[in-house]
Amino acid sequence: MKTFAAIYIGSYELSMKIFEISARRGIHTIDHIRHRMELGKDVYGNGFIGYETTDALCRVLQEFHDVMHTYRVDDYRVCTGTLLKDAKNYLFFIEQIRLRTNLEVEFLSNSEERFMVYCATVCAEGFDEIIGQSTAIVDVGGSSLQITLFLKGRVITTQQFMLGMMRLREKLSGVGDTISHYEKQVQELVDKELSVFQSLYLEGKDIRNILLMGDYSVKIMKNLQSDGGLRQAGAEQFLDYLEKLQGKGTEQLAEELNLTSESDPLIVPALVVYRSIARKFRAKNVYTPGMDVTDGIAFDYAQRHQMLKIAHDFDEDVLSAARHLAKRYFGYEPHLKALQEMSLLIFDALKKAHGLGRRERLLLQVAAILHDCGKYVSLVNGVTCSYQIIMASEILGLTQLEQQIVASAVLYNTLPLDSYEELADKMDAHSYLTVTKLAAILRVANALDHSHKQKVKNVRAGVSGKKFVITFETEADFTLEKELFYRKAELFEEVFSLKPTVKAKKIFNHSV
């Protein structure tokens, strides 16, 4: 049994949950403390975090620290999102927290934060059954909105929108002199962004379920139905209730939804976003699991310490997202499949030489899937376009650093490898070594199917003395691939201290 504290510094509140985590009982929340503090107002309004806000936040965090001491927590983690990095003085702000409270704050990228919440939601009862149908997970936060789309249990895409409740409020403050006028302006802004998503990803798709994340969604669902576990209501019932709330002031909404604050300025933009989602997606059911980032932080801690067993295949989520991204850019599937198989075969045969693990094997597979996506943009500059597409996309389950590793492996699959000094601002030395190893494997694997005709069959690979020997059978002329293979072998030999060699056995097709 471990007692763990998860603290999240968000755009509109500080939140701390105390958990008991054990292999037998799983993750159990024993306390939840929240403090309203609108950091986003400082960042969006002034571009920096004022000293008064810093002082107030440090006092609250010190109180959190005292509560952790009372519970005798074994470990803790303090996280914040990308919002604070938008502040000009974020480094001074984080340093003040460390000096005054002795708490170290960790930044989460948007993809890391959303993935944590997603992982926690996986633990909810009936989750796999729900996403087995067509489902949209909609996470409405203070600074942004995230939509992750599933079809038949597989991730199709995940997209971020700058439509968070706090951001909408600050962007449109003062535009309406009445609630109805203000709501109309927010509605137009939200509908415009969602219409683009609808045309790109929802055409011809019947979305059955919406899994809605966010504080107010739980409050709304409590007024409709409460039976524990995944709270559920029909989408029409959910939308009808939201439309009844349209035009009401913050005091009326606070009373209706039993909010602690009678003048909560974020409730109106939140309800507008919920209404837009319900209208655009035309789903059958709405679920509100009630998970947040602190639950995700606890899940991540339990996973890292091997205190939790989850049947859900998170690696398959990553691969599914990568495959659909490649499909979107018209990747040639037979070549991508052949390159994946060849790359993984070489990786597995080189275990002692590369010293990499299961996670790096997954990154290699993603790189193989996405290595040609940039050719959709430019045949001449395809590799640099591939790099840019990978870095600009969100791949559910990959951290920002992991995306950098994948994109760089794809880049140096073709271009000459830059020195570590030239890339030190993008990755650490360990990550750089990982990139070089993955790129070296990709180069030789890609050379074996350079014609995109899948000429090799029954491939085997292994280390023999100072050589890495790849043997296979082929019915076709292998001259082009063999010539390119040895040109591409230089980095492989340099990285692994093994000379790659191919041995082809010519077979003949005797069919008449």
Descriptive overview:
- The protein has 21 helices and 14 strands.
- The protein has helices at residues 39-46, 51-71, 90-101, 110-122, 127-131, 165-171, 179-202, 215-224, 235-245, 250-257, 267-281, 293-304, 314-328, 333-349, 351-354, 358-370, 382-392, 400-412, 420-423, 429-447, 479-496, and strands spanning 2-9, 13-22, 26-36, 75-80, 105-107, 135-140, 145-151, 154-161, 209-213, 231-234, 285-288, 456-464, 467-474, 499-506.
- The chain folds into three domains: 2-108, Nucleotidyltransferase, domain 5 (2-Layer Sandwich), CATH 3.30.420; 125-290, Exopolyphosphatase. Domain 2 (Nucleotidyltransferase, domain 5); 314-506, Hypothetical protein af1432, CATH 1.10.3210.10.
- The termini are far apart.
- Helix 1 crosses helix 6 (165-171).
- The protein is α/β, with parallel strands linked by helices and 512 residues long.
- The strands form three sheets. Strands 8-7-6-9-11-10 form a six-stranded mixed β-sheet, with helices on both faces. A five-stranded mixed β-sheet has the order 3-2-1-4-5, with helices on both faces.
Shape: globular
- Number of separate domains: 3
> Within the largest sheet, what's the order of strands?
8-7-6-9-11-10
CATH level-3 fold name of the largest domain: Hypothetical protein af1432
Q: How far do the termini sit from each other?
A: 70 Å
Biggest β-sheet description: 6 strands, mixed
Low-confidence stretches: none
Instruction: Give the number of DSSP strands.
Output: 14
Write down the Rg: 26 Å
Overall CATH architecture of the largest domain:
Orthogonal Bundle
Structural class: alpha/beta
DSSP summary: helix tally: 21
Report the sheet-strand fraction: 15-25%
CATH superfamily of the largest domain: Hypothetical protein af1432
- Helical content (DSSP H or I, runs of 4+): 40-55%
